[in-house]
Amino acid sequence: MTATADQTLRQLGPTIYLPAAVWSTGLGAVAPVIVLTATSLGASPATAAVVAGMLGLGQISGSLPAGVLISRIGERRTMMAASALAVPALVACMLAPNVLLLGVAVALLGVCGAAWMLARLAYMTEAVRPELRARAMSTLGGVGRIGTFSGPFLGAGAMHLAGLDGAYLVAIAGVSLATLILIMLPSVPHDRAIPAGTERPGLWTVIRAHQRTLRTLGVAVLLVGALRASRQTILPLWGASLGLDPATIGLIYGLSGGIDMLLFYPAGKLMDVYGRRAAAVPALILLGLAHLLLPLAGGAVGLTAAALLMGVGNGLSAGLVMTLGADASPTAGRAEFLGAWRLCSDVGVGGGPLLIGAVTAVFSLTAAALTVGGAGLLAATLLQRWIPGTSDAATRGHPASQA
Fold it and tell me: Is the model's pTM score more than 0.70?
């Protein structure tokens, strides 16, 4: 165990959580504005949705290269490179003269986000002792969710003064501030760049060596990503189908997000003390059941109940994907493995809304809700089966450490 493994969550605060919070807040400011920017450039609603989806495509395409880059130059330099690309990408989004350039800039922004978050994951996998790992990961996820939740409010205030450009200015300020924090604060005790001349396993060598994990537990993680992303799409769609006004739908969605944010630390502690399955399986059952119950929601009260259930399920899964990836990652080729692991999750995140759209187009929104709900129960079954017993056993027998 390296010396860095003695770090607590409090010690990780300034160097890990603070920059991540600022970064997430900045990017959260532009997340709801991308579609509006596309439509202002003359895009149809369908085209605008595709442009917004380029963010997820960028994350998917950036995961594997980011893992290789981290292995070669280290986490800190990778984040600096991501920041150096994110600022011009945001400027391009703000000044894009056409939809095509906007889509390219949005995709580049997704690549930068993938590199940033993978660098944090790679560092924390080695920097935190195993009995504290889930809490560390869930806190990182929680910080990101808080930033994503608060960013749009800052963006809205800025847009009141400067129009759509205001949201991008907030994002540029957030990315720049996060980078400044990285520069000003001392380097983290561990920054794993493999020394030149040292034999390192290639990306595809690592993937082949761990293909069984990726095609079993990785498939379950893909479904987890799909469930998480689908709720962000299906709640507004269901509210609109009920004839609810946008303010009511927004309030219901906000309540779900509030419950979600409150549970990130308890979820991590549950995994650390009682094992990964103790949070993973109930979380996916709740997410699945919430989708299955949506057809019974005939008004605002019913939709609120389903949304709150989704919030509880999503909150209990905070940090789950990162924790399982850290548990499964090898010492040699860790960054490359984590890049492949993130790819599984990102494909699910990108595919969830597409699944809803496809099933709704062919059948109905009710069929989409039932399909996603069934996928949630399947994910719970797969997690129960494929989470290694050692992942649970390793968390037992260790006293709950101070955070």
Answer: yes
